[in-house]
Automatic annotation (TrEMBL):
Organismal lineage: Eukaryota, Fungi, Fungi incertae sedis, Zoopagomycota, Kickxellomycotina
GO MF, one annotated term: ER retention sequence binding
Membrane topology summary: Multi-pass membrane protein
TM stretches of this protein: 65-82, 94-113, 119-136, 148-168, 180-200
Gene: ERD2
Localization of this protein: Endoplasmic reticulum membrane
Protein name per the record: ER lumen protein-retaining receptor
Key words of the record: Endoplasmic reticulum, ER-Golgi transport, Membrane, Protein transport, Receptor, Transmembrane, Transmembrane helix, Transport
Cited Pfam families: ER_lumen_recept
UniProt record, GO biological process: protein retention in ER lumen; protein transport; vesicle-mediated transport
Amino acid sequence: MNIFRLAGDLLHLGSILILIARLQQTKSCAGISLKTQCLYLLVFATRYLDLFLSFVSVYNTLMKVFFLASAGYIVYLMYGPLRASYDKALDSFRTEFVLAGAAVFALAFPHKYTVLEVLWSFSIYLEAVAIMPQLFQMTRTGEADNITSHYVFALGGYRALYIVNWVYRYYTEDGYSDYIAWVAGVVQTALYGDFFYIYFTRVLKGKTFKLPV
């Protein structure tokens, strides 16, 4: 654990709390991609299968439980109480392609050929592209409310901080390497490039998130 990893975890935690607060306060999931939320639920479900098999620390266990439970709760809200506000026509990204791609990469490039390791690798590859349905939906509408923008920024910022964490560990820990996480993390952060630019040039200046025409 280091300050960059901790900051990344807290930003990730904050992103989920922002989204849940937004859903509960507005009683609407308009502008939120259900497909992205389902992908994140699958990411956590396949990554944390070791939750009951190994113990690292109380912090590690609590974070895993939170991410699993919160992802399930968000999907429940969007499928259940807030279903009427969900616009399926806008949430039209073809998730089968990213699922198939993550599965192929997990089978071709896992850390080890065991069930848990292949599923862990799958979760890493899938997380790298799980935000794509949300970004695609924002591209289709051309705008997003500020709370949704803060949520997406926090998600992207969490991964960017993890890259700094990896660099720090590379230079401070002997023999540290994790090429799967590194490559997936860089790809994931790069997907936020255009979003980050608009967020810094508009949202942080008090304007609404709007794509240039």
